[in-house]
């Protein structure tokens, strides 16, 4: 396991961005959609910081994880865990299912794959 400083820096910047969105924006497109778009990129960068894994494989794993969390919201996971009034749990796991969240996650992962593909193409030339 080696530390990738580029991905770690991106992780930190994305995390700060997500925190600022959570603190200062309580509604709207940036809070509800762009934040979901960024969160999959954040998770991808976090794991790439510490694990040497093929980007496509990690991207699919992150997308699957995001979809699982979103579909658990249909089952009202927070209520099942008696965390429906816990702000942090609601922030991390979400509290309501939205198809638009699935679209945002997918677009975030597509963005990651486009950037990763271009980076690899530049390294080969």
Automatic annotation (TrEMBL):
<feature type="transmembrane region" description="Helical">
    <location>
        <begin position="95"/>
        <end position="115"/>
    </location>
</feature>
<dbReference type="Pfam" id="PF10990">
    <property type="entry name" value="DUF2809"/>
</dbReference>
<keyword id="KW-0472">Membrane</keyword>
<feature type="transmembrane region" description="Helical">
    <location>
        <begin position="58"/>
        <end position="75"/>
    </location>
</feature>
<keyword id="KW-1133">Transmembrane helix</keyword>
<feature type="transmembrane region" description="Helical">
    <location>
        <begin position="34"/>
        <end position="51"/>
    </location>
</feature>
<keyword id="KW-0812">Transmembrane</keyword>
<dbReference type="InterPro" id="IPR021257">
    <property type="entry name" value="DUF2809"/>
</dbReference>
<protein>
    <submittedName>
        <fullName>DUF2809 domain-containing protein</fullName>
    </submittedName>
</protein>
<feature type="transmembrane region" description="Helical">
    <location>
        <begin position="7"/>
        <end position="28"/>
    </location>
</feature>
């Amino acid at each position: 396991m080696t530390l990738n400083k580029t991905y770690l820096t991106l992780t930190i910047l994305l995390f700060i961005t997500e925190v600022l969105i959570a603190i200062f924006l309580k509604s709207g497109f940036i809070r509800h959609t762009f934040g979901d778009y960024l969160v999959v990129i954040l998770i991808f960068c976090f794991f790439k910081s510490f694990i040497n894994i093929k980007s496509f494989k990690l991207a699919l794993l992150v997308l699957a994880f995001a979809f699982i969390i979103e579909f658990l919201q249909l089952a009202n996971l927070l209520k099942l865990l008696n965390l429906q009034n816990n702000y942090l749990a609601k922030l991390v796991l979400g509290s309501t299912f939205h198809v638009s969240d699935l679209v945002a996650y997918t677009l975030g992962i597509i963005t990651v794959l486009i950037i990763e593909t271009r980076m690899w193409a530049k390294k080969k030339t």
